Amino acid sequence: MEKEWDIIEVLRHSRHDWLNKIQLIKGNLDLNRIERVKEIIEQIVIETQQETKLSNLKLPQFASLVLRANWDQHQFQLEYEVLDEGESLSINESQLTYWTESFFACLNDSVEPFQDNHLSISIEKLSNGARFFFDFRGIIKKIKLIEQFLAGSNQTEMELIIRQFSENELALEVFMPMA
Description:
five-stranded mixed β-sheet, 5 helices, 46% helix, alpha+beta
């Protein structure tokens, strides 16, 4: 399921993303849209802070999956937020990463292509583990596929709660206890 990423490919994607951001800033400067430039720079700062928080969780497999998700040409855009500052998490990272990667694949196969599909992940560190909120907004065309995936997701260590599920929304909460 997982694609091998070498350093050259990672740098190529990262360079492309940064070039797009710089061109966006340059274009808005050329149009003398200073307020928009400030907004873009502020968004870049927020994204960079979130990357730092994600990296500081010391979950390298999971962080790698999330950081490169928008490079994998999914039928959805991924955003993420780490809600708390702090040190690393001690959870079953392999299980979390495998489940998340499988969820991405299932969601990718279930949604209407070329639509405004967005997945947001919020990560909350708790004293006894971590809670991961997966919130999808878009068009789900294969609800049964997601239902089957979720039914098979009853892992012993992980607690999955479905908060909302319809043709346009899927909200899940995954709790991972401390290892």
